[in-house]
Give the backbone structure.
Amino acid sequence: MRPFIRMLTPVLLLLMAVTLSGCGEQFIVLDPKGPIGESQKDLIYLSTILCAVIIVPVLILTAIIVWRYRDKKGSTAKYRPNWEHSTKLEIIWWGIPIVIIIALATVTVKYTHALEPSKPIASEKEAITIQVTSLDWKWLFKYPDENIATVNYVKIPEDVPVRFQLTSDTAMNSFWIPQLGGQLYSMSGMAMTLFLQADEQGSYFGSGANFNGKDFAQMTFTVDATTEQDYNAWVQEVKNSAPALTMEGFEKLTEPGTSDKQLFSSFPEGLFDKIVTQYVEEGSSGGHHHGAAESESDTGSATDAKNEAESDNADANQEHMNHEGH
Amino acid sequence: MLDKIKEFASEFFVTGDPLILGAQVSIALSVVAIVFVLTFFKKWRWLWTEWLTSVDHKKIGIMYIIASILMLFRGGVDALLMRLQLAAPQLEFLEAEHYNQIFTTHGVIMILFMAMPLMFGLFNIVVPLMIGARDVAFPFLNSLSFWMFFFGAMLFNVSFIIGGSPDAGWLAYPPLSELSGSPGLGQDFYIWGIQISGIGSLATGINFIVTILKMRAPGMTLMKMPMFVWSVLSSCITIIFAFPILTVTLFLLFIDRYLGAHFFTLDGGGNPMMYINLIWMWGHPEVYIVILPAFGIFSEIVSAFSKKKLFGYKSMVFALMSISFFSFFTWAHHFFTMGSGANVNAFFALTTMLIAIPTGVKVFNWLFTMYRGRLSFPTPMMWTVAFIPCFVIGGMTGVLLSVAPADFQFHNSYFLIAHFHQVLIGGVVFGYFAGLYYWWPKMFGFKLHEGLGKWAFWFWNIGFYVCFMPQYALGLMGMTRRVNTYDFDMGWQPLNVVSTVGGFLMGIAFLFQIWQIAHSIKFFKKVDNGDNWDGRTLEWSIPSPAPLYNFARIPQVQSQDDWWETKQRRAAGEPEPAPAPLEPIHMPKNSGIPFIMSVCWFVLGFGLVWDWLWMAIPGFLGVVACLLARSFTYDTDYYIPVDEVERTEAALRGSK
């Protein structure tokens, strides 16, 4: 694999030059600022090259054949109207795609496991948790460790893994910060985990990628990555100066409508859990849990006891659903 | 009283938007004009006996194609409105709600009411002629399929002026499409429009499988069938497995909305994920349903205009069938980002990549059909040659999307939009256009003007790349699908403007095509024989347009490309066996029941949309009455006498 990649470095550079020329930094997917986005970018380039290995020759071949065998007076090209089969050729063009696909498949399987969104990012620093809720048509972010909340705005420290827990209070959406990494859906009645990290300070564009109704296009937000000191200072400032998010305030947020950036010095206890389990009927312990959601148990190093309790609850839900044959 | 009527009208009709008001007025005027023309020229009876009640596969095919061109116009206008809205940041040309309705209807119309009927139209016209049959296996059912499709499409389309359009996206994910997310009537129009036409599609699938398996001319074994027939077979097999899933899924959604069930709701133990899985179990095979026949068309055209046998016939058949099979195992790649877990994602990534292999093989086989051929480039061949690079690139971006972890960055972005438009326009639309140009003389007996066709071709192709290549880049810039507006500081404007220009180039291309058709009708020049392309398959052995009974004598097939081989033998002066004596030809009788029954379905659907049981129940009873009436009709067929066949043949072939 390695010499192969090295051989294609010029192609890679050329591709990068083409795609990044001019307004380079606007191609935010190809200009990642975190380890997850970085790996995804590598994978995009690698798979592009693997495909190009077969596509480019095919395009050239098409042009040559169409030109060479066009009907014109005095054409010297061969004409064999009944030539319709060649085992050798068939083996070649079944074989080449199979080889390419096997290579691509191997890479894909490896990366699929490596980049499973709920997998914690290896780091000496402890991950911070941000609970994300998509509402009609705004994002609510809660920092359970700091007990602050924001709307349509995220601040994170650089070089620290961030564990986003995603849910929705309404139709599903998809939480996407292209420069940090790929998206994951936020869906009602379940909490899914997405680990991201910013390696550099900066201000990053985030959006709700999945259509969820009228003003879906307004569901953009900014992610500011700063030094840890600045982050801590910001948390203190929010705690000291911003208003508290009350239950009534939350109800108001859930009403359909757009919102500017908002900051809150605190939020009602267990609000996220309440949003996730709101569809569980009284007296039953069932809730929808889904795939990547189990990560709560993976991240047993959760920072406070409340989280541990939540994750126990989640596991119980999961068992319940399995029991139902879900 | 007047107030009540006013109040009702304001609920019944969509009001308040000048664009829609304009459309309402123009629709009303067109209806008046059509009624006037039909009355003035005393054409009502002609319309009824020659078209509405016809069970002739050729006429049904033509009606499918006319309907699909109308729908292409509607879907195209939707597309251009969207492109206008996106041409500048913060534009207030379309409001968010209106924009959402437009992208929803654009998607539904283009896939279900444009691509599908265009495909069925070509099935209808070509398949019986290619296999040497006189009609499809079930002509009555065929007519019913068409009218079910037509009235389903109309039910969906009226939502735009009556009651309100759906706005939850073309696949209507719950909970957005549930009552909680879409309390209006649009979603009900969506359900019943698709439901009614879906039954028609399913019946067509069954009809063509039986036709292909049971009605081939003697001597045409499966492995001697033209490749287009193989592609129709694979597509129809996919239809009969996929469409029932759609019907059930939409029915469950209907029960949720109408009776307050909780299959897909958030509360009451429902689960929206269930819907998403189900709808894509239909939705993914659906895209293969429409692309497979396009592959068949390209195979026919490439071989005909290379003057050479199709390369790798067996390989092509195997590829078609394996694509059809694997199309049922890839659905979850539409939601890699919904937390399925690594193993599930890896599985669906691999099955998706697997499909690339047979598809790639087909491309090689087309290329090597041209290799050592004698290529000529009339419009059908131009579309075919333009298809290859376009589809190869679109296929490649599809493989990129199938790499699950990378899809986390592509999903829901304009990269995805560019990809599926490239395979659906570059593959399906180019393919059906190629087929339309190729078989047009067979359908109508005259050729389309080549010069105007070339203008249309170049506008379509250049427009396509100008429109969609920037969208790949926009996706990498983080632009997500379905946004109705964006901020100035995103830097998305320049490429959006380019894309809009491309969209309008394709709009101009469409106008060229309409002009081309009008021009060719005005300067009608009959093709001088039934074989104007020097074709290879049986449909070219009979006059253009084909007589009612297609083949005066059912051909005896000896080889692939049977008509080509016959011509070769004739040229070599080999003696031909004397033609068998003519026999009376057994034909199905026309019937008004399919039309009436579909009107009843429309009434039923309309009643259920509005929750007007006084309307729905009579509609339902009408459907039942039609079923009964048909069941007790014994006089369904007749014979064309020999002397009439002789006269027709002499007239058609005498003009040679």
